[in-house]
């Protein structure tokens, strides 16, 4: 029985690896808070466990200062996706560089937890003791199970 379970687990890993290989060259939304004001890297998202009647997203520069706040109003539970136009709060183009973002969600004045999600381009796929890994641009590696949306 133990041999059968090991064979089944190995087969599942091979199948998952084959499915993951189809994502090479595609963009995926995964946990993370990084964003850049450039094509395909301006997309960000967040997951909400329940609806929120007020959601704001703050874009932060490398020093942690707020560059722009986006008022998104009410949002439903689940994955929510948005794009930053690369502008600062004053309407000027933000300089090229690494930025991060935070999400603040409220329902009836009470905080709603959220998971921040960023876009990554799948360069390759590998398998290790933690299972199938997606190797993204920028030397980031995430679990296949961490993918929240595929573009």
Describe this structure in words.
The protein has 151 residues and is mainly β. It has a single domain (2-150), classed as Immunoglobulin-like, CATH 2.60.40. Helix content is 13%, strand content 50%. It has one helix at residues 2-21, and strands at residues 27-31, 34-35, 43-48, 52-60, 66-75, 78-83, 99-107, 110-112, 115-128, 131-136, 140-143, 149-150. The longest helix is centred in the first third of the chain and has 20 residues, at 2-21. It starts with a helix and ends with a strand.
Number of domains: 1
N- and C-termini, Cα separation = 40 Å
Helical content band: 10-25%
> What coarse outline follows from CA principal-axis ratios?
globular
Q: Can you count the helices? A: 1
State the main characteristics.
Immunoglobulin-like, 50% strand, 151 residues, seven-stranded antiparallel sheet, mainly beta, five-stranded antiparallel sheet
């Amino acid at each position: 029985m133990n041999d059968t379970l090991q064979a089944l687990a190995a087969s599942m890993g091979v199948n998952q690896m084959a499915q993951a290989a189809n994502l090479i060259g595609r963009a995926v939304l995964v946990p993370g808070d990084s964003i850049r004001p450039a094509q395909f890297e301006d997309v960000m998202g967040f997951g909400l466990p329940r609806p929120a009647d007020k959601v704001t997203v703050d874009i932060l520069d490398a020093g942690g200062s707020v560059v722009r706040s986006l008022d998104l109003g009410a949002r439903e539970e689940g994955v929510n996706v948005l794009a930053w136009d690369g502008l600062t709060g004053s309407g000027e183009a933000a300089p090229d560089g690494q930025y991060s973002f935070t999400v603040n969600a409220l329902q009836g004045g009470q905080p709603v937890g959220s998971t921040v999600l960023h876009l990554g381009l799948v360069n390759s796929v590998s398998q290790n003791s933690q299972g199938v890994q997606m190797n993204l641009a920028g030397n980031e590696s995430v679990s296949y199970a961490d993918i929240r949306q595929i573009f």
